[in-house]
Amino acid sequence: TRSIREGFAFRHVSVWRRHSHRLEPAGSSGPTGIARADVDDGFGILGAALRHPGIVADSVADELDGPVAAGIGGRRMACAIPGSDGAWGVLLVIAADDAEPTTTTRDLLVGMADILGSVLQVAAASTALERRVHWAEAIGRVASDIGSRFDSDQLQGRLVDHAIAMFAADRGAVFLFRPDGSRETVASRGLSAAYLEAMGPGDLGGLTTDAVERGRPAFAIGFRDDARAADVRSSVVQEGYDTVCVAPLIDVETSESIGSLNVYHDRRHHWRADELDALARLAIQASVAIRSVRTYAQLATWAAQLQSIQQLGTRLNRLSDVGAIGNAIATELRDLIDYHNVRVYRQYGDDLIPVAAQGEGEYLDETEDQLRLKVGAGITGWVAAHRVAENLRDAAADPRADTIPGTERDVDESMILAPMVFEDDVLGVLVLSKLGLNRFSDDDLRLLVIYASFAAQAMAHADATQRLERQLQSRRDLLEITETILSTLDTTTVLESVADRLGELVGSDNIWIELVEDGGVRLVPVIARGLEAENYLEPFLPGETGIATWVMEHNLPVLLADQFDDDRVFVGPGGRVHGGLICVPLRGRIGAIGVLSIERLGEGRSFSEEEFELVALFAAQVSIAVQNARAHGAITRQAETDDLTGLRNHRSFRHELAKAVAAGEPFSLVMIDLDRFKLVNDSFGHEAGNAFLRAFATAIADASRETDLAFRYGGDEFVVLLPRTDATHVGPVADRIRGAFANVMGPTADMRSKGVHVEASAGVATYPNDGATPDDILLAADRACFMVKRDGGGRVATAEEGLALTDVFTLQIPTPIDTGP
């Protein structure tokens, strides 16, 4: 353009290149003002030149071509530049205002356009050749680079980087297809996380489908307006790119599509045929590299699997706990087989119990109770019953499969299952699950079967080891618990300790202890642990009998291999049940003082003679401890009881008062003192006085609430402790107690005839309002009572009224019991 302008003294010369239906400036010389953006290929004299190749179109400067050469005056002339397959573009010149386009000028322009077209074709051919050489070298370097990488993430990331560099792109990504037809992003550059998430598992609005079906790269300019982008248009607009090209990745061995390499340009990019060929070759190299990486990964996986299998037996056989073995198996399997959920079941009789489970996603909320099942139930139970490994490519469609209770498992799911068999006995089942269809291979199942055999050996070894350990531990624990229970003087604590420890030593579903009451004729449930604990704590119905009552009456232990067959066992609402049962008496000096029972539920779940012997030994120690506790309780009650009235004594009162203050909850205290009681002793003798005190003590106990505690404080003074009672409610209780005194005096006509008139004075105080310590609260109540007596007696006074005596009153020790004339 510069040579033409200077050689022919034109004001302006520019060359416009044609792309699709647009013209874009490719070079210019002259004053500024030439448009930098493209225009429609039908615009002004540029369009006229394209429509009439070989003919010069001309015009004077006007508003029509302002967008092309705004501000440049003069005669416009344009001529099409020929190309190999039609017009390559347009040559535009601007001459002086008075220049007329002569025939010579027109021929000159046509000749210059032809020469320019020839030069451009030669340059294009040279450029294409150089580009092919460059791309060939580049593809060779890329192939060497990605072919030397055995890490899939590194390979895919480098592939995107090379594609962006080779094609001067702004963004790139590699997508791989999953077995179920969906796709995942494995590497990307320049694309936002929101865009990749919006793409989801589907294809790029049909463009990927076109590329895969053709087996060649496919591109779209202005993709946001492309019909194939209808489903993803909003995401494309938000991302802001213009052109995308999709190259399918084809497995060289199976000829199946495994994914795509996508290249993005933010500005309009016209993909030439040679560029598409280069991208296709790059995709082929990428497919070979991905196949190699996958093969290498498979070989590495097999090597790891073989090594893991060799180490598995050694590791598992070092473990002696079933749960630890189950967790170790689940952890090992993660390295060998990809899964979303694993369950390790142990078989006990007809029950399959999950001893280990690890899950994610849909499987996180599964509980042990939900997973428990019977042999023969569901696909897991079927595998246990038939000892056959299974690969379920669509678990939901298998008629043997059952939905786990309490879950909504309406999803596509694959499963593999293998029984754990040792010496012809099924010890359990291994189960792996994965979301989606056809997610496990036959190789996966073979690995699981191998693992199951090792697991079975480990489980059997653990069973034998634990049996020996339990035998030794049971002897040690028996000695330890003997020391514990013999030093414990609380019956409930003894029984709870025995039930908990025995449950640890002897595997069971239920343990319960009943004690003999009502003179040895009735059993009362005291402690229960296990699945049916609530039922076993229910009291016996009138006339109800069972194996426990038989053991109590005969004072003999019983071992039942299956309680279902013994008529002595009580049959509940659910009918007879299968399972082993041990009932042993707690023996006293003259007969059974209780019964200890332990139970296993399920057919075939019986107890051994060794376990029976251990339970009997425990029962013997419990019998001694219960008798000791009962004897201690009787002595303690006797030491805390007032011999004359039967109420609790002064020592017991001080102890309970201190406990009440230490608890920190509100309570009230009523101090009661008999007025003129000495006249009773003087007029009728001490025996009459004692009878009067006994009658008054009975009246106090009857008038008190069930939660109240009544004490003889000393002599003719009594105290009632009212737990959780505030100042508002203590007055009525005190009045009711005083009212009960009237009933004691009512029938005593002899006293009235001799002028003996005995009344009761009472003082009340509330914690913490009237005192913060035991002595303070006692002083407040005693002071109020003393004030009443000083004023003539016969009523109730509050601690607030007693404050009038603060300066003159000192708390005295209890009034001595008057025992003499």
Word description of this protein:
There is one protein chain. The protein is an alpha+beta fold. It contains 24 helices and 27 strands. It has a 6-stranded antiparallel beta sheet, with helices on both faces. It has a 6-stranded antiparallel beta sheet with strand order 14-13-12-17-16-15, with helices on both faces. Helix 10 runs antiparallel to helix 13, helix 14 runs antiparallel to helix 17 and helix 20 (686-703) packs across helix 21 (727-745). The longest helix is centred in the first third of the chain and has 45 residues, at 103-147. It is elongated. The relative contact order is 0.04. The model is unreliable at 815-821 (pLDDT under 50).
Number of helices: 24
Secondary structural class: alpha+beta
What fraction, in percent, of the residue positions are helical? 40-55%
Distance between the termini: 147 Å
Give the tally of β-strands: 27
Report strand order across the widest sheet: 3-2-1-6-5-4
Summarize the main sheet.
Answer: 6 strands, antiparallel
- Mean pLDDT across the residues is 80
